[in-house]
Design goal:
- The protein has 345 residues and is an alpha/beta fold.
- The chain has a single domain, classed as Rossmann fold (3-Layer(aba) Sandwich), CATH 3.40.50.
- 32% of the residues lie in helices and 13% in strands.
- The strands form four sheets. Strands 1-2-7-9-11 form a five-stranded parallel sheet, with helices on both faces. A two-stranded antiparallel sheet has the order 3-4. A two-stranded antiparallel ribbon has the order 5-6.
- The longest helix is centred in the C-terminal third of the chain and has 32 residues.
Length: 345
């Protein structure tokens, strides 16, 4: 079992405010505000999303546009610390801190008891303001709400979803946004998330989560409202594994349409409550190098040993590979959209 240390009681003094959050978004507002050196744009466009190195992250991607990551932690006391550890892992690996922490209060993750409609509305708000589809990472009960959000965006529970302002935590009284890439007004329903991943969803946990009973039978189905989705499950997960993770088929996620879905089988040595506890992995170069060279697979293995702890490295490496990939893809799309806009004007 991993003890999540070095975090302590929550005390937040972080007050980031995005430079573009106060402006009214109209056609081309976001693209016209994207000021990048043409050489940097060319360098980003030349990257291979499947092979992003540590140097690419620090010297190229981190200097350009970055998608926001919304983390959703588990539902039992103190488990938020594991997701906080994961957030610090991402930051240490080179992901911009401002695109992980909540700009309202500095927290690293949202509660799984927040309304899925509210989270969907927040996703729309960020997309309109920042110009890049959000990425979602959910652990345990946070994974349940992550999948529910994807169905919420697909219109499974209501024909309309309100835009929510994450700074005021209030609905804005509208159900559409200005798409920053096309300049055309569009509804929140049908909006796409770039990448979503969950770990520890299902089993007994889904049965005792009364507020999620409307999702029974849907937790393993992924709609078209995400481009890339990865679902991880742990063998012998007594809390959230269907048939305790011993039978593969019930634990695998499947697309209902165009979403590209991957499944990852984690070994029984992984502990359900602390899988996202990964901050320690970024502290040692040999471990970071292994993570940065990782190639995604359905049943990953660690064939080397390190002089330091490598617990949870398989989950961390898989998520980090997908985060880097989506980061690159979205940055490239934004730059191409900006160049297309200039040709139209």
């Amino acid at each position: 079992m991993v003890i999540v240390s070095g975090i302590g009681c929550a005390s937040y003094t972080y007050h980031y405010r995005g430079a573009n959050y106060d402006r009214t978004v109209e056609k081309w507002t976001v693209l016209q505000g994207l000021q990048l050196d043409p050489l940097l744009e060319d360098t980003i466009l030349a990257l291979d999303p499947e092979q992003i190195t540590e140097k690419d992250v620090k010297e190229v991607l981190s200097r350009g546009p970055t998608p926001r990551i919304i983390n959703l932690h588990g539902g039992v006391p103190l488990v938020y610390q594991a997701m906080e550890s994961y957030s610090k892992f991402l930051i240490a690996m080179g992901y911009p801190e401002a695109k992980i922490r909540n700009p309202r209060d500095g927290t690293y993750s949202y509660s799984p008891f927040k309304s899925s409609a509210e989270i969907a509305g927040i996703i729309a708000w960020y997309y309109e303001k920042e110009g890049m589809p959000v990425m979602l990472v959910g652990h345990s009960a946070g994974g349940m709400i992550t999948v529910r959000v994807l169905h919420e965006l697909a219109g499974a529970f209501a024909d309309k979803v309100a835009v929510w302002n994450p700074l005021t935590e209030e609905a804005e009284g509208r159900h559409s946004i200005i798409d920053p890439l096309t300049g055309v007004e569009r509804p929140v329903v049908g909006l796409r998330v770039g990448y979503a991943t969950v770990v520890g969803v299902g089993g007994l946990a889904s049965l005792v989560s009364f507020h999620q009973w409307s999702m029974l039978g849907r937790f393993r189905t992924i709609p078209n409202t995400v481009e890339h989705f990865t679902g991880s499950y742990i063998v012998l997960d007594l809390i959230a594994g269907d048939f305790f993770g011993l039978v593969e088929s019930p634990n695998k996620y499947r697309a209902t349409g165009t979403a590209k879905v991957r499944n990852v089988k984690l070994p029984p040595s992984y502990f359900h409550a602390t899988v996202p506890a990964t901050a320690h992995l970024a502290e040692h170069k040999p471990v970071r190098d292994w993570i940065n060279r990782y190639v995604p697979m359905e049943e990953p293995e660690l064939a080397v040993s390190f002089e330091t702890s490598s617990i949870n490295i398989l989950w961390a490496a898989d998520v980090w590979h997908s985060v880097k990939k989506q980061w690159c893809l979205e940055a490239q799309r934004l730059i191409r959209a900006k160049r297309n806009m200039k040709r139209e004007l």
